[in-house]
Amino acid sequence: MEPITGKALILACSAIGAGLAMIAGIGPGIGQGFAAGKGAESVGRQPEAQGDIVRTMLLGCAVAESTGIYGLVIALILLFANPLVRLL
Amino acid sequence: MEDANFIIRFLNWLMSFDRKVLILAASAIGAGLAMIAGIGPGIGQGYAAGKGAEAVGMNPKAGKQATMVMLLGAAVAETSGILALVVALILLFGNPIITQEGAVLVLAASAIGAGISMITGVGPGIGQGYAAGKGAEAAARRPQYQSNIIRAMLLGQAVAQSTGIYALIIALVLMFANPLIKLM
């Protein structure tokens, strides 16, 4: 039986927390898919405006991506530059 | 203090088990959590199927084009489910965590964390399915522009997949190149 150290507990919780942080990706996934759907619909309606439609869609998708990136950054910090163990 | 005592008692109870038992149990939970991602493709493809049926009903002459766009989009929407399945199968049949050195609590928690991370697949699954449905609708309306519609749909779906890929990377890092172990 290994003794429980405080450090092990913090690192264990960091692993779970990194996983939880990534759940944020659900939102951008749904939102960007909605944008893609509306984009496909618009191209079908006005094929000659394809370039403009796709540009606007990608711009919106880039904004929608931001929260997913935030989640990724927190997960990477928890894994590779854990600030919590340094506070011990 | 009562709550803290409970947590410590729980952790002591956990640590009274063998190292392998703990990691394998956590891997089982992680595999189950990963498969929750299946919700996304399920909803998304169902939406695409509904829109496909609607599109064929609206313009039966373009039924082939609409069905083709729907199937292509639904196949892309399946990606997140497959990625989650792969992570779950790795945890079950090719468990990389069991052979790793380091604190057992961290390794067990990493298995659970990898599973939780894959839940993200819900989002891309729903979103890409929505795009597939709208693509089928558009193809039924203007079958002659099928290739343009497919191009716009696939481009958007590729962007929608990004968060699912991030989650996969975090899950793989937790399983194969755990940086937390080095901190102990």
Automatic annotation (TrEMBL), chain A:
- GO CC annotation, single: proton-transporting two-sector ATPase complex, proton-transporting domain
Per the record, membrane topology reads:
Multi-pass membrane protein
Sorted alphabetically, which InterPro entries does this protein's record hold?
A: ATP_synth_csu_bac/chlpt, ATP_synth_F0_csu, ATP_synth_F0_csu_DDCD_BS, ATPase_proteolipid_c-like_dom, F/V-ATP_Csub_sf
One Pfam family name from the record?
ATP-synt_C
Q: Tell me the ranges covered by the V-ATPase proteolipid subunit C-like domain, including all copies.
A: 16-78
**Keyword Phosphoprotein recorded:** no
Listed GO MF terms: lipid binding; proton-transporting ATP synthase activity, rotational mechanism
Residues at site: Reversibly protonated during proton transport?
E65
Superkingdom of the source?
Answer: Bacteria
State the compartments where it is located.
Answer: Cell membrane; Membrane
- TM region(s), chain numbering: 57-81
Q: Which UniProt keywords apply?
A: ATP synthesis, Cell membrane, CF(0), Hydrogen ion transport, Ion transport, Lipid-binding, Membrane, Transmembrane, Transmembrane helix, Transport
What CDD domains does the record tag this protein with?
A: ATP-synt_Fo_c_NaATPase (cd18184)
Note the Gene3D superfamilies from the entry: lithium bound rotor ring of v- atpase (1.20.120.610)
Report the family membership: Belongs to the ATPase C chain family.
Describe the task this protein carries out. F(1)F(0) ATP synthase produces ATP from ADP in the presence of a proton or sodium gradient. F-type ATPases consist of two structural domains, F(1) containing the extramembraneous catalytic core and F(0) containing the membrane proton channel, linked together by a central stalk and a peripheral stalk. During catalysis, ATP synthesis in the catalytic domain of F(1) is coupled via a rotary mechanism of the central stalk subunits to proton translocation.
PANTHER family, sorted: ATP SYNTHASE LIPID-BINDING PROTEIN, MITOCHONDRIAL (PTHR10031), ATPASE PROTEIN 9 (PTHR10031:SF0)
According to UniProt, the name of this protein is ATP synthase subunit c
Recorded source organism is Thermotalea metallivorans
Mind giving the lineage of the organism this protein is from? Bacteria, Bacillati, Bacillota, Clostridia, Peptostreptococcales
Which gene specifies this protein's sequence?
A: atpE_2
UniProtKB/TrEMBL annotation, chain B:
In this chain, the site described as Reversibly protonated during proton transport is at E78
- Which positions, given as ranges, span the membrane? 21-48, 68-92, 104-126, 163-181
> Where does the record place it?
Cell membrane; Membrane
Q: Which InterPro entries match?
A: ATP_synth_csu_bac/chlpt (IPR005953), ATP_synth_F0_csu (IPR000454), ATPase_proteolipid_c-like_dom (IPR002379), F/V-ATP_Csub_sf (IPR035921)
Recorded GO molecular functions are:
lipid binding; proton-transporting ATP synthase activity, rotational mechanism
- Cross-referenced Gene3D superfamilies: lithium bound rotor ring of v- atpase (1.20.120.610)
Pfam families reported in the protein's UniProt record: ATP-synt_C
**Taxonomic superkingdom:** Bacteria
Question: Which part of the chain is the V-ATPase proteolipid subunit C-like domain?
Answer: 29-91, 112-174
GO CC, alphabetical: plasma membrane; proton-transporting ATP synthase complex; proton-transporting two-sector ATPase complex, proton-transporting domain
Q: Which UniProt keywords apply?
A: ATP synthesis, Cell membrane, CF(0), Hydrogen ion transport, Ion transport, Lipid-binding, Membrane, Transmembrane, Transmembrane helix, Transport
Write down the CDD domains for this protein, in alphabetical order. Answer: ATP-synt_Fo_c_NaATPase
Q: Membrane topology for this entry?
A: Multi-pass membrane protein
Family classification: Belongs to the ATPase C chain family.
Entry function: Key component of the F(0) channel; it plays a direct role in translocation across the membrane. A homomeric c-ring of between 10-14 subunits forms the central stalk rotor element with the F(1) delta and epsilon subunits.
Known HAMAP family for this protein?
ATP_synth_c_bact (MF_01396)
Q: List the NCBIfam families.
A: ATP_synt_c
Q: What name appears for this protein in its UniProt entry?
A: ATP synthase subunit c
The beginning of the lineage is: Bacteria, Bacillati, Bacillota, Clostridia, Peptostreptococcales
Its gene is: atpE_1
